[in-house]
Design a protein that fits this description.
alpha+beta, 273 residues, two-stranded antiparallel sheet, five-stranded antiparallel beta sheet, 3 domains, SH3 type barrels, 7 strands
């Protein structure tokens, strides 16, 4: 082969061509991969950024064993922010790496039922089947208060989103994740707002009205509070759903699966089986 003044460029092109013919590509340096993981993980602690964005980063990290390990390291050291710990526990339940799941059980609290038993892994839980009619009874229980916050086919209370067509809007895993982590996906117009008054009283709820003179906030019991803006010290949206987390702790595994089955059966205008 005759060398030319442009050999470094030609040589690189030749090597790339050989890699292509061989059906492979040059390996990335390990340091670059680790740097990427480090950079992603560092974003988890940037609590000034929206929680939805940081949950996206969390999900990305859980796609590789190295990223999963980094999240678990953060959790073990107490560096994983509180608003990501439930999402991390759910992501860990999807993990295909048993050794990492076992390790994670020591630093991320498992989700448990009212019997104190840990929930199965998310893919296994989604695969379980229940009874919609029994799930409707669970939905109507006063201690869970689902019916006190949501409408289904014209019945209930309009605080949270209407669930009449939830079986069309979300797949089975999406519905389950919303039960276990209500703040994972907050529907538009159902964001929680915090109002701090000048006397330091605080209100939390949905924003019903925002005029020049006053704010109208609907709380989790559907009560309306009218507040003069002249009395408000701080007014801000917070990334936490009005629906409480941890509802599975008030249900047995069978009740949770029955509730899931009922919600999956809901389509607008149709009665559950």
């Amino acid at each position: 082969m005759r060398l030319t003044p442009n050999w470094p460029v030609a040589g690189c092109l030749l090597l790339l061509g050989l890699w292509a013919l061989a059906g492979c590509r040059p390996e990335r340096p390990a340091l670059a991969k680790q740097t990427t993981i480090e950079e992603l993980a560092a974003q988890l602690t940037q609590t000034q950024k929206p929680v939805a964005r940081r949950k996206g980063v969390l999900a990305e990290l859980f796609k590789t064993p190295e990223g999963t390990q980094k999240v678990l390291d953060y959790a073990r050291l107490g560096a994983l922010p509180a608003d990501l710990r439930l999402a991390a526990a759910l992501e860990l339940g999807r993990s295909p790496w048993p050794a990492l799941r076992a390790q994670g059980s020591n630093c991320l609290a498992s989700l448990v039922t009212k019997d104190g038993l840990p929930l199965p892994r998310l893919p296994e839980l989604v695969a379980l089947r229940g009874h919609p009619s029994e799930g409707e009874k669970v939905y109507q229980r006063t201690d869970l208060n689902c019916i006190g916050c949501h409408m289904v086919n014209g019945q209930g209370v309009a605080v949270g989103s209407d669930l009449s067509d939830i079986g069309k809007r979300l797949d089975r895993e999406g519905i389950l994740e919303n039960i276990l982590d209500p703040s994972a996906i907050i529907t538009a117009n159902y964001e929680t707002w915090q109002v701090i008054l000048k006397n330091n009283d605080e209100l939390y709820g949905l924003l019903v009205e925002n005029s020049d003179a006053e704010l109208v906030i609907k709380d989790a019991k559907a009560s309306l509070a009218r507040v003069k803006k002249s009395e408000v010290k701080k007014f801000q949206q917070v990334p936490v759903s009005l629906m409480p987390a941890g509802l599975q702790a008030s249900m047995s595994l069978q009740e949770l699966v029955d509730l899931l089955e009922y919600l999956c059966s809901l389509t607008k205008g149709a009665s559950p089986p």
